[in-house]
Structure prediction request, 415 residues.
Amino acid sequence: MTHKLNVPNLSAAAWPEEGLTRVPYFLYDDPAVYALEQERIFRGRSWNYVALAAEVPAAGDFARSYVGDTPVIVARDKDGDVQVFVNRCPHRGAQLCQSWSGNAKAFTCPYHQWTFDLKGRLRGVPLRKGVNGLGGMPADFDPARHGLQRLAVTVRGGVVFASFADDVPGFAEYLGPSNLAYFDRVFDGRGLRVLGKQRQRISANWKHVIENIRDPYHATLLHTFFVTFRLWRADQDYAMKLDATGGNAVQFIQKVDRGPTEATRETTSRHADVRLADPRVVEAVPEFADGKSGAMQTIWPNLIVQQTLNSLATRHAVPHGPGEFELHWTFFGYEDDPPEMVERRLRHANLYGPAGLVSADDSEVLNVVQLGATKGPAGRAVVELGGAGTADAEGMVNETMIRGFYKHYRQIMGI
Prediction:
């Protein structure tokens, strides 16, 4: 298979004739593809996750984040509104904010001390009139035209999304009815409490981690901990729902202990003789009315919302070039959680993060996939489990959600 590397419009690029059951490997290391993703996906008509509102609870609170690979600042202004603007001084392009979080009355550029208020408006230019009548800005310089670049913002259930586009659909329309219901299931209007944050850098393309979450097939094979302690197995009750575009999807599971089955006998990662020194790591209490023990939602383009047992978290995949991304984890609970629930959530958080009992497997295997997919002759992935469709489905031996992602990806990218 061949494709054109040097065209800004990739509509002429070759996608395998089998369609969505094949994913060409050039998507993972082609700089032209990466550049177009930044333009059409992250700076296009997308709602991009940037933070939880609980990270900026008071006026002047701020947190650094990203939209695609563009650094942004999330700030709470004096009116109580959340603002998002590009982390770049419009004077000479210096990165304005260096701290990951904090509280500030204004943002001042470290280079020439241009100062901006919490709405991103330019409020101060040192030596604007020059010195002794020499130099300075022209008389017609208008500070109102030189504020920080602001993004459109929407907040739902305490989650902050931003967009470079001014014509993005409303968030409910953007997510679709079935996926909105599962988003609201976790973000139900209760105040959120941030329990901790972690970051890790992985040598792989950002799309690999989105595929990974949309790939239930691997969970029952790769993750020894999941299978051994009956948290996520192919013989349990499982289903997935996709929105009309395929870009948003949710999967959910009900933990059922059926003992050894045909599925577990085929699974070499299960260790029947292993026991936990502290079984509380997998002991949970029912929390949601539907009784689901786990739910993973991917929101276009690069947000993962996680519920496993009583662990709740967002995962934000931040691209840093075709072959590298950061995964930003934010673990949270609710403001009204009693102390024993906070302790339980923190204990369950040991499953995840860079050194998690489960997710450490993913960090390593994503690098292995990147190495294999991008070296050697051009190739493509086979994505045929469960057929060729992108409709709602049941059962873990299924790659429907990956096909759904690329259905939307192809439409947005014009490939």
Summary: The radius of gyration is 23 Å. The longest strand covers residues 192-202. The chain has ten helices and 20 strands. Residues 359-374 form the longest helix (16 residues).
